[in-house]
Amino acid sequence: xxxxxxEYHSADGTRYVGFLARPTAATGxxxxxxxxxxxxxxxxxxxxxxxAAVGYVALCADYIGNGDVLGMEALGPRMSPxxxxxxxxxxxxxxxxxxxVAQPGVxxxxxxxxxxxxxxxxxxxxxxxxxxVAAVVGFHSSLPVNRPEDARAIRGKVLIQQxxxxxxxxxxxxxxxxxxMNAAGVDWQMHLFGGTQHAFAVPGSEAMxxxxxxxxxxxxxxxxxxxxxxxxxxxxxxAAQAD
Length: 243
Description:
Layout: E1 2-9, E2 15-22, E3 30-34, H1 42-53, E4 57-61, H2 72-84, H3 90-101, E5 111-116, H4 118-128, E6 135-139, E7 157-163, H5 171-184, E8 188-193, H6 217-234, H7 237-242
Parallel strand pairs: 3-4, 3-5, 5-6, 6-7, 7-8
Antiparallel strand pairs: 1-2, 2-4
């Protein structure tokens, strides 16, 4: 496996610094990873490494810019416009997708986008923009429910994985998201993990001291397996040949 920082730019010239991990032998399948809100950290780099170890070219998208990782004081003002209108994240995500598909050995028809926390919303907004992604996976994901008609632009399969005790994505938001997915005819599924709070897939997240935020090892393991199952039927070689 090889890995390194990857600099790329959006159409408006904004500089981004992601993290690319490549398997020893690329199969054509690739995964775009949208980070937790603060920025690309060792956690996301570890996810990219795990994916590369099993054959996927993986890029951690930097949607903050310049590879920055924001502290809590800077995070709020930066996130506020995106929370008000998640569609604003599409430009940075489209730039990252372009950087990923430009890599040697990547088949543009076999790309998945995954995301954690607000990164899940970023991955969904990429799909809602009509981008050619074969699968989308959100872990303890924010769920964009504005502009419900945009869900009709989603081309790939969607898997949302949430803690049933996550106070940041309450049941009424999940229900609204479900209705929008059904109305748009999306091939979607949602896994709810009992006794599980926000950031369940991020080891040590409870150290943040935020109520409702805690790592949950069983849900972490189960959600990873569910993601790999989705990849098997969407971006892996046998699935591509079957289609």
